[in-house]
Amino acid sequence: MKFLFFSEIPTSSGGGFKISPLKCRNGRPRTQVQHLMQIDLRGWLLNYSPSFQYHSLLQIQNCVAGLREYFSQTDETHITPRIPVMENMVDTSAVQKDDKKSTEEVDSKTKTADRGQADSKNMGIIDEETDEDEDYQVPEANIEEDPNKDAKRADEPPEKIDLSCFSGILRCDADEKSRNCWTVPDSKLFKVRSKNFPHDKSKIPAASYLMELAAIDWFKDSKRMDNVGRQKGCVAQVAAEKGMHTFVANIQIPGSTHYSLVMYFVTKSLKKGSLLQRFFDGDDEFRNSRLKLIPSVPKGSWIVRQSVGSTPCLLGKAVDCSYVRGAGYLEVDVDIGSSAVANGVLGLVFGVVTTLVVDMAFLIQANTYEELPEQVIGAARLAHVEPAAAIVPQDLTPPPPALADDDNAAASSSEDDHLSKKTN
């Protein structure tokens, strides 16, 4: 989780503080504070030389680094402060040779500190691995298993499905400039645990999806919408009639008007013993400990992309999730409003959602050799979704409460008396 505090910075087009929790050390809580800045040097006066601009930028960053050094000393630790290197901020060809030399020194220090971590497209500071990855333990029963064997994998890519019989509110369109549309991103964009993850924590691009994205609905109502899979005519019901199985991801967005972004992933069969089948038929504790979301913002403002990130998150730990196992489908209702942190990030994203292209991938965390490498259930890429495009769902009103046996008997007796009088 990330706490975000945003401040206005006159010389920048975006910025703020990102506070991330770290593991406790000696029983003491710890956090990582990052000050995010995006500075556009085109705002400087034209008569300043590039070397002066670059020097001034380093001085600004040194002030921020001084805060880091101060807090590290008060925490009884001594960390050499480093300055993250921002990309595309300076035209290095215009900087003098001595400036280039200092730039190389800063870059070399940053690369040394970041070695072994994932690359960042925007900043030199990289988020730490998730707690789930750090706490990964190889089960003793499987410790002797060959991590490279994959002949007996239970999960396999599904057969191709004719999706023409399914429809949703948002339309399928690969043109990311279109509005209120979705497409399926390349699975290789998402990094998952490799076969050798227990040994070296390595990750690889994901293979083919386990399920196919059939449609996406975009609902709004005055109250929260649960169990949308029971709605007549929705993808989950149509797929069940055809003997298929559906995973329904219902992202619930709170507010004066409640919204639900509902994604339907379908497959022809659930192979017995597979991780996907165990997830469908398991209990809520198992599902909460395994279901992960990988978010990403391929296109959007810099501060939104930094806020959302692309770190996998166990949904059951971050927010409240409720599950409905219906006939032929499994639905997870993700209550974003249950977490102050998630709600804060959502508030930032939802305010500019019409300008964003957002990726969401769902996967089941692998905890044993047999389950590795991880596979993604499915993913969706949404482009420029407008709140005004949402509609009020039909057939989601709760059914009337069932009558008790005594009430049923009384009702039947009353009907018999009425019919008897009418006959007489």
From TrEMBL:
Residues 126-145 have a biased composition (Acidic residues). InterPro entries: EDR2-like (IPR045096), EDR2_C (IPR009769). Residues 90-157, 393-424 are annotated as: Disordered. It comes from the Eukaryota. It comes from Oryza meridionalis. Residues 182-386 form the Protein ENHANCED DISEASE RESISTANCE 2 C-terminal domain. This is Protein ENHANCED DISEASE RESISTANCE 2 C-terminal domain-containing protein. Residues 96-118, 146-157, 415-424 have a biased composition (Basic and acidic residues).
